[in-house]
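Proteins fold reproducibly. Next comes an illustrative record:
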Amino acid sequence: MAYTPFKFPQQPTVQQTLSRTPGYFGQLNMPVPSGPATQNQGMLPSATPNAMPRNQKAAIIMGALSDIFRGQDPTQNTIARQQQMVAMQERAKQQQAMQKLRDGQPFTQADMIDILGPKDYLTATMGTNKGTSLMQNTGYIDDLYAQRDALPENDPMRQRLDTAIRNAEAGIGAYKYDPTRQFDITESKRIAGSPGGLDLTPIESGIDTAFAKDAADYIYNNKAQVQANLNNLGEKINILEAGEKNVSGPEIGLTPEILAPILIPDAVAFEDDVRDVVFQSLREKLGAQFTEREGDRLVAAAFNKSLPEEVNIARLRRLYGTIEDAALAKENAIAHYNEFGTIKGYQSAPLNFESIMNKLVAPNDFEGLTDEQLLKVYESDDTTDEERDVIESIVKARD
């Protein structure tokens, strides 16, 4: 029998092995460099669109080389490594998409594919098991509703679950044929497309324009004047409380007007200062209804020189509070406008002539006066109609 010498199987060269080792999208086709390394040469190929990350590609190549040096065929191990890395990438995408859903972030079709996988997504939307997948998705959404409804109304988690529900329902096309949802979407788009994202009627827009002009005038002009008037009024109150000047009382009130500047100059100057405060502070608040006559009535109500000084102190304090409240209301309205871009929705107590007069004149202003003193005040030219009404009610009550 002829003798045939035994030969070890010839191992493929490194270059032959690498040339037929599959890469992420086909053959790696990486020639082994035979000479000195130059620029744009080496073990890693140039990056290509949709290629795997460079570090993963390097790991596959190093694994293949390790198999070759151990005398193993690297083909199968390389494929297994690629499949393992792809699976890791898919799991990472799935976890990121699930986190977006739990956080209530905007949810896209791509996110749904990352969660279900391409095959299950197609099955859920177009495949033969569409009914079963739809039931599963519906059950998931029902579970979200149950979780939300179990929470208290003020729980912040409710808002996140509401967003997750909307995203999930949109993902299965639940809104496509729902007229209510379609109306909400259309309205949201219309509001978002309006100037500043505000949904204003022409009248509301006109009110905002007028208020913006008024607010600018207040900020740059009237605000400082209002504060100066409050300071002035505070000084007048301090003068009356200290008794530094005799500026009001029954005797002062009986002084003929023509002789007042000569006989009671302090009282006349005091009343003029109060007049300035009233006109400057309330004209801007009352607008067109603040006529010369209405202003005089408010001045007489704030400071009646026929009344004792303690009564006028109380009235001036009420006037101070009225001006301060009006300024605060203006400040709050401007703050609302700055925050929301519109005066729409701002609510404040109305300020008009009647409301101011009712604050200034109070029944207890006359309680300490005798009937004779009440009669003198009633007959005085400085007394307003509102004061006479109060005096009449006091006299009737005494009878």
The longest strand covers residues 22-23. Strands lie at 22-23, 26-27.
